[in-house]
Amino acid sequence: MLISFSIWQIQGEPKLRGKELRTRMENTNKRICLSTPTMHEEELGYIQEAFEKNWIAPLGFNCDGLENEIADYVKGDDDWHTLALASGTAALHLAVKLAGIGQGDKVLCSDMTFSATVNPIVYEGGIPVFVDSEYDTWNMDPVALEKAFEQHPDAKAVMLVHLYGTPAKVDEIRALCDRHGVALIEDAAESLSATYRGRKCGTLGDYGVISFNGNKIITTSGGGMLLTKEKSLRDKALFWATQARENAPWYEHKEIGYNYRMSNVVAGIGRGQLKHLEEHRDRKEQVYRRYEQAFADLPVTMNPYLADSRPNFWLSCLTVNRDCAVDPLAIIRRLGEANIEARPIWKPMHMQPVFATCAFVTAGGPAVNEDVFARGLCLPSDIKMTEAEQGRVIDIVRSFFE
Ligand SMILES: *Cc1c(COP(=O)(O)O)cnc(C)c1O
């Protein structure tokens, strides 16, 4: 059984009813999307069990199960303690709190990412300093990070993203964090199952964050997970995530808390999905390889990765080469007219009006991220896309270069 819907396309459109809705749903099914949930049979089994045991309240066997299964999945040389939460953003927020980020504390942060990476820094009164990317992975440039440490020696932490499921240059970044004695928070929201030098994304820093949002490689419809190295840190995050209730017969509070726990029902979806994670990854790679092959003779470059890393290929992207006049926005528009969803590269944070006052550090030359943003686009990477459907995408892209 495959259930599919797009979470991005229906936004802002009027509510439809009855026949109109059915027609719309049929069209929806024909639409080729960037990345939508792919469901299997097992998810319903876990949900059913939650219903049968009337274990609908947050917390319960599916939350415990998902935490244990993810801990097993990411386990390498070290054990990791996992905490199931309502979203990746909630997990990032608790990671920022665990790292001790408070009022006025600077965090050196990936610049080309989704805003959810940055917002939790600001929730805690921290100040993001954006760090430019390199061309090898489109992730934080260690050379720019070193500059950022020189310019902001008082920085308290580094927030690192693996964009589109492609691992960053982690060893160089880790070495800089160690040299400056700051924590590394790893936003692995897009990169579950990707590995860097044999180690899984989410376990490469001091704190790891995974997202199970509907568009990610596996989903709980909405949810996230925090990974910590010590049980005491996991316990502290659990305390904050459950309204900061002190141990007392009555509700006793010494700190501000949050309601951030994952529900036992949606955790069941995650357990079923996890059984298909490697299969999802392989199908994502297949999508990427088909594009790579189909565009081999065009003046375009697929999103790059390091030889010793294994991306999860969550999104396939390309940049139009510098000497070529084709405008990515024109490609996106034409695909849109054919009911195919494509998107610009995530707009860099230093270009966002809301972060206009934040510092931005490059390695020295012009901003890599502005260049990638100007020349790039995200291609449909849905693993339910048939070869024929991907062929339609490929034909339209190719038509711009003929
Ligand atoms: C999706 C995403 C998040 C947020 O995760 P949610 O579960 O949607 O809150 C954070 N960072 C990145 C890079 C993401 O892609």
Question: How does this structure look, described?
Answer:
- With 402 residues, this protein is α/β, with parallel strands linked by helices.
- It has 2 domains: 42-274, Aspartate Aminotransferase, domain 2 (3-Layer(aba) Sandwich), CATH 3.40.640.10; 277-399, Aspartate Aminotransferase, domain 1 (Alpha-Beta Complex).
- Helix content is 36%, strand content 14%.
- It is built from 13 helices and 15 strands.
- The chain has helices at 18-30, 42-52, 61-74, 88-98, 119-123, 142-151, 170-180, 231-241, 264-274, 277-294, 328-337, 368-375, 387-399; strands at 81-85, 106-110, 127-131, 157-161, 183-187, 195-196, 199-200, 207-211, 224-228, 300-302, 309-310, 317-320, 343-344, 360-361, 376-378.
- Strands 1-9-8-5-4-2-3-14 form an 8-stranded mixed β-sheet, with helices on both faces. It has a 4-stranded antiparallel β-sheet with strand order 10-12-15-13. Strands 7-6-11 form a 3-stranded antiparallel β-sheet, with no helix packed on it.
- Strand 4, helix 7 and strand 5 (183-187) form a beta-alpha-beta unit.
- Helix 6 (142-151) packs parallel to helix 7.
- The radius of gyration is 21 Å and the shape is globular.
- Mean pLDDT is 93; it is low at 1-28.
**Domains counted in the coordinates: how many?**
2
Task: Tell me which CATH architecture of the largest domain applies here.
Answer: 3-Layer(aba) Sandwich
What is the rounded Rg? Answer: 21 Å
Mean pLDDT reading: 93
- In helices, the fraction of residues equals 25-40%
CATH top level of the largest domain is Alpha Beta
Number of helices: 13
Which blocks of ≥5 consecutive residues have pLDDT under 50?
1-28
